[in-house]
Design a protein that fits this description.
EC number: 2.1.1.33
Number of strands: 7
Structural class: alpha/beta
Radius of gyration: 17 Å
Catalytic activity: guanosine(46) in tRNA + S-adenosyl-L-methionine = N(7)-methylguanosine(46) in tRNA + S-adenosyl-L-homocysteine
Largest sheet: 7 strands, mixed
Keywords: Methyltransferase, S-adenosyl-L-methionine, Transferase, tRNA processing
Family: Belongs to the class I-like SAM-binding methyltransferase superfamily. TrmB family.
InterPro entries: SAM-dependent_MTases_sf, tRNA_(Gua-N-7)_MeTrfase_Trmb, tRNA_methyltr_TrmB_bact
Strand content: 15-25%
Amino acid sequence: MIEEQGSPAVAGEARHHRTIKSFVMRAGRMTEGQQRGLDQGWPKYGLDLADGLQDFDAVFGRNAPRTFEIGFGMGHATLEMAAAAPEQDFIGIEVHRPGVGALLNGAMTQHLTNIRVYSCDALEVLRDCVADASLDRVLLFFPDPWHKSRHHKRRIVQPAFAELVRQKLKVGGVLHMATDWEHYAEHMLEVMNVAPGFRNLAEDGRYVPRPDERPVTKFERRGERLGHGVWDLKFQRID
């Protein structure tokens, strides 16, 4: 899944300081289906940062468990999760336009009604468009590990990120992260273990087994064939 996601700034800080982005905007070729998704699907599924704070009950036309996914890549896992759980709503964010188009095209093809999409900085959406204590889950699957030491400051998982997610999750809500970079998994664990208001759901205080609700992607299967590991982390908001 695509890794790129937003600035680690919280609240008004982003308005007053130049923030470090944890994603890189990349141009990509658009297939016919992806362009169709953008042209025809965006009016139905698309949401804009400029619209500000959203009433998602009104957006979806119901009150339902709500998942916020940061960086859905080409949207395959998002579509699978949404199709498997029609009683839940999914808000997906991705900056890579071909991926946005692919998800929109897939949602149209499958006639899904429980998906909405932003194409911008996910943390700006969290900060400006999502009410506090309104999300049941926040998903961060395979974020860019920024593996070089000088780039670690670009990693999305930082103390400010943890606090912003805590604010937006309901008490009892869960932040679920997954990475195939062990050093980044260790970084996530280090940040989240000291983040106020969270409890690690792993029995050993480290990583959870891959949950059934997280689809296995082609990317992950390829990694498994090459002997790569995947680490899942789940942290629950407790206050």
